[in-house]
Specification:
Layout (H helix, E strand, L loop, with lengths): L3 H19 L4 H19 L9 H5 L4
Length: 63
């Protein structure tokens, strides 16, 4: 089973792809967006920081 941060990254990426492909009104995109938000909350409550999900920000020195 992946860690909470890995689950947040996976669901975030899936939601981004669905939004780009289908738009905000599509039910699958909305479901994946809700799953990504739920996974991000789980990662946060497990002690991870919000920006831990976004490695690109960390590589550019935003923390």
């Amino acid at each position: 089973m992946p860690s909470p941060i890995a689950r947040a990254r996976i669901t975030h990426f899936a939601a981004m792809r669905a939004l780009a492909r289908h738009g905000m009104r599509h039910p699958v995109a909305r479901t994946l967006l809700a799953a990504a938000a739920s996974a991000a909350v789980s990662a946060y409550t497990a002690g991870h920081h919000v920006l831990d999900i976004h490695d690109e920000f960390r590589r550019k020195g935003h923390r």
